[in-house]
Amino acid sequence: MSVRVCRRAGRQAGPPAAEKPEPGLRLAPLGADELTCEAQKLEGSEGFMIVFRAETPGSYYWINFGGWGNKEHGIQKHGGGWNLPRVAGSVEQGKWHKVRIRCEGPRFQIWLDDEKVFDATDPQAFLSGSVGFSVYDTRSQFRNGPVTSKYGRLRAENGHPEPYNVKYWEIDNEMWGMGEERYNEAIAEFAPAMRAAWPDTEIIVCGSYGYDDGQGCTDGWDQRIIDANAQNFDYISIHYYNGLRRAADYVDDPRRYEAFIRDLGRRLRESENPNALIYCSEYGMMTDFGGTGPDWRSGLYTAALLNGFERAGDVLRIAGPALFLRRTWATMWDNALINFDHRTRFGGGNYVATKLWRDHYAPDLLEMEGPDRPLNATAVRTEDGRAIYFKVVNPKQHAVELELTVKPGFTVGDASMRIINPGDDRVKNSLAEPDALRIESHPVRQDSQTIHVHLPAISAGALTLSSAN
């Protein structure tokens, strides 16, 4: 579907209360009483949908033009149980259709190509919210198609005749509402066709939420996808937000989720495609919903989880945190790495921890001996062998004395440490104080091959050991 927003009118209802009402919906923070736009169906068996009055993640309306096999139009209310009888109608492929939606209190009037399709009143209406656009059961080859293909020509007309050669493709996102039976059918249809067209494509399929145990959106989803389609994908994409449907926990939950990842990796190894890997495509911690940004709890969780990702690197190959960017008046998903207004920005606790960990990335994971509690730590070596990074989280409310000894084979020449040590897990950065959480130097004591570090309570740091050779 292509969309051109022509005009929007009416009063601004304030910051949108929903930024992600349901998988597949792409919302714009308009909050308008009237929307006029043009929409074009490009390809597929269905039409297009326009979301309006999206108040919360589960409370919104959408108008479905050309739904149900492109045979009917209908208004559906999510989170309220009010649905109008559908009316006969379809949309024409390749045509720009004019759409007008007018909301006056509980009354909704909707036109398609200047013909009024609906005029109805919901006695328990949602009275404000965002709008957005959605599609279902459509196809696109815009990015990788040759110039001779339909969308390849469109790409060339837009100034890029060469294919983008995108390698990684996920067959939709968070498809749990579709059900695994229908989603498995879609994978079996799309994956072979994609590989036939682009043999180097790495295919990603939608995996589970959380621990896939019913305390979220899925219950046994991963195994049913593996059983039906292991041979048709290269990665299974999993999502998890600690603090959402589970209590926020930066002490024990990172290790529990690491164990879940390892078990999922074991099941992939035992499947028809033992080379399949895991992509954790959304992860983070939800602490507050007030729009003030993630505090240091999210930083402690992120650092510990990144250590777990490194330890599980044989089965987990890609990971991506979420949210990435958030305007500060958006309160529903208050866990973004980068938070901004029209003037400036600040990094959340998760950003500060991610920055420190990324600055001390190295590809070679080293074995460690000794207790793995209460600290959460990994040791990695640079590709040239000239430095070792020891990344450690102390999630406890008391300090820990650390003694680290490097075995022969690497001669320690110099030791230094960078640390995040705010003293309270509720400390957070803000537009007014963007460096309340910051990375600072931290003293260490070196005795030949042994390093002594005093790790403050609820801190996270990276120790650099430089080779004397």
Describe the structure.
With 469 residues, this protein is α+β, with helices and mostly antiparallel strands. The protein folds into three domains: 2-134, Exo-inulinase, domain 1 (Jelly Rolls, Sandwich), CATH 2.60.120; 150-359, TIM Barrel (Alpha-Beta Barrel); 364-467, Golgi alpha-mannosidase II (Immunoglobulin-like, Sandwich), CATH 2.60.40.1180. The protein has helices at 67-70, 150-157, 180-197, 221-229, 253-269, 296-311, 349-359, and strands at 2-9, 26-28, 34-40, 48-56, 59-66, 72-78, 87-88, 96-104, 107-112, 115-121, 130-134, 168-170, 202-209, 235-242, 277-285, 316-319, 325-327, 338-340, 345-347, 364-365, 376-381, 387-394, 400-405, 412-420, 440-442, 445-447, 450-455, 459-467. Helix 3 crosses helix 4, helix 5 (253-269) runs parallel beside helix 6 (296-311) and helix 6 (296-311) packs parallel to helix 7. The N and C termini lie far apart (60 Å).
Salient structural properties:
single chain; 469 residues; alpha+beta; Jelly Rolls; 6-stranded antiparallel sheet; 7 helices
Summarize the structure.
With 469 residues, the chain is α+β, with helices and mostly antiparallel strands.
| Major beta sheet, strand line-up | 2-11-4-5-6-7
Unreliable parts: 1-32, 139-143
Proportion of strand residues: 25-35%
Judging by the overall fold, what is the CATH architecture of the largest domain?
Alpha-Beta Barrel
> For this structure, what is the CATH homologous superfamily of the largest domain?
Glycosidases
Number of helices: 7
